[in-house]
Amino acid sequence: MIFDKKVTVKPKPKLDSEISKFGKEYHRQYRRAARAAERNIILDDPVDIKRRRKAERNPEYFCRTYAPHVFYNPFCKDQKDIVESILACVENSTFQYVLAERGGGKSQIARFIGGVYAIVTGRVKWFVYLGASQTEADNGVQDIMAHYELEDSLLRADYPEVCQLVHALGGAPQAGGGQTVGGKRTRIKWSPKRVLFPIVNGSKASGAIISPRGIDGAIRGLSFQGKRPDLILGDDLDTEESAVSTVQTDKRKSVLTNSVLNLSGPNTGLPVILLGTKISHNCLIAQISDPKIFPGWTGIKQKRMYKPPDAAELWDKYIYVRQSGKANGEDPHGRKAHDFYLANRKQMDKGAKISNKLRYRNITLLDGSQQESSAIEAFYNEVADKGWEVVNGEYQNEPPETEQDAHVLEVNQVAESLNGYQRGVIPPGCKALTRFIDVHNRDLVWIDIAWKCGLIGYVVDYGVVLTNLPSKTSITEKEYNSQIELAIIDTLEYMKEAEQEGGYPYADTGVVKHIDLCLVDSGDGVIHTDAVYKFCSGAVKYMASKGLAPWRNPRVKNGVRNRG
């Protein structure tokens, strides 16, 4: 049978599951596009381009305009000199130091110039902030980061290509992973451990880096995607403890000269500037600023008072009145001394040369008087309250010579008088160089001796290296002993590395020689013995040894050595 009627086949309807799948994919793509649009930042234009250009030409104006909460007073000459030293160091790739008074603003100036001004103007692409410890370095970088994070600041208004993108993170560093400008990722990293500025076309700060490092930590071989640091700022690398420790100062000096100063790339200079206060005559900044020790460094030495007033006797009386009034409780705020100064101010100020005339407490007290009326009065209040020794060390960079300073000098003189050669120099004709290390929990005592034929020995150098002794308050006796063992091994490794990098020159040729053999006393205790054997098992030229007490020595009988 033939049918003329045309048959139309209807399409099979879609299942509900297929419709649901299509809808989910559509909404997924929609949400993805919406999130991408949220992460894509449309940058504002600078609010005042003329102000921005003026600030970039004038560093002091930059500081006082974009951080008025910190730099609320005009810069004195010493503060301007610090700014010029940092920028000259960057421009000429030199090694410079700045000996400045405590509390004079050197750290705030250095952080803002190095971490903000030099970054946003494109003068520096990788800024390494070097502190006395990693914690101090992290705190310094956090202080720098805070300037970029301030809401409604002029820095945010004039530098949107940096600050706007920082604010867009909303305090969540992980949000930087998807942040884009014009559809391109900015790759911003915003953490005190590492700051990577957003990569944006036209931004002078694009891709710049800020890294915190402690002088007591790992510094060697700092590099990122072929880049090398182009400004190292060491800020107060001395501590109260290290300043009076020859061992700690030598360790800091070794890290600085062997690791920090070699961070530059091939055929490039490295600007390094150290800021500090001369706590002692043996501290790191004191040695760096001594041209006899480090002739390759240049810099400036500042004081709070460059020239004292002519009327010294009046200031002696002022100090007496202030101290006596506070001592007996009759005048706790020193008002009698203040009144004495106001009555004789012209005569008492005559001849004085102070570094910062605005450094005094211009505060009105409850009785209506000013707490201090001049920077000269403020200086002598420090003298009266803290003493000349503190003032000379903290504000004048002229610390008194301590017993330890005298002791170090005396040791050198004794060593020189014994063999006729300076400490650290090998006499001519010596064929071998040995070291002996006596191990204790708290420290390792060592001595290096150069030998001529016939067992004629010359003491070349000696000293004590402190171990990082653990705290015993919150661990068991077994854990404490284990930590002591690790501390001894770690200290021995440090001494080995320091010797490999150092060595002693011959007095006549200057050729450097390293030790040929080192004996390490393994002692009688289990902790010392295990630590020394573990260290010596993997160290070339290092051997564990044991000394014999007189009553155990077969050559000694009744305390008298047997000639045979």
What's a concise summary of this model?
This protein has 564 residues and is of the alpha/beta class. 39% of the residues lie in helices and 16% in strands.
Layout of secondary structure:
Blueprint: H1 16-39, H2 49-57, H3 59-66, H4 77-92, E1 95-99, H5 106-120, E2 126-131, H6 134-149, H7 154-158, H8 160-167, E3 180-181, E4 184-185, E5 189-191, E6 194-196, E7 209-214, E8 231-235, H9 246-258, E9 272-276, H10 284-288, E10 298-301, E11 305-307, H11 312-327, H12 335-343, H13 345-349, E12 353-354, H14 375-386, H15 388-394, H16 403-419, E13 432-439, E14 443-452, E15 456-466, H17 477-501, E16 504-505, E17 512-513, E18 517-521, H18 526-537, E19 542-545, E20 556-557, E21 560-561
Helix pairs in contact: 2-3, 4-5, 5-6, 11-12, 11-14, 14-15, 17-18
Strand content: 15-25%
Count the E strands.
21
Give the helix/strand class. alpha/beta
Q: What is the rounded distance between the termini?
A: 138 Å
User: What oligomeric assembly is this protein in?
Assistant: single chain
Shape: globular
Low-confidence stretches: 556-564
Number of helices: 18
Give a structural overview.
This protein is of the alpha/beta class and 564 residues long. It has 18 helices and 21 strands. The strands form six sheets. The protein has an eight-stranded mixed β-sheet with strand order 5-6-7-2-8-9-1-10. Strands 15-14-13-18-19 form a five-stranded mixed β-sheet, covered by helices on one side. Helix 4 crosses helix 5, helix 11 packs across helix 14 and helix 17 runs parallel beside helix 18.
